[in-house]
Amino acid sequence: MMREFLELDTGEICQQLDISTSNCWVILHRARMGLRECLENGWFQGESVA
To answer: At what angle do helices 10-17 and 21-40 cross, to 10 degrees?
Structure first.
């Protein structure tokens, strides 16, 4: 959210969250992979959540 909506760069995010640059990149990678998995596993197939 900080990167996409607040348009902060990696250095600003790391400073605010007190994490390393490599940790930030790992978090972003895992978030992208989670989104990809969600989209591939039925997001567009109209599956409802009960």
So the answer is: 100
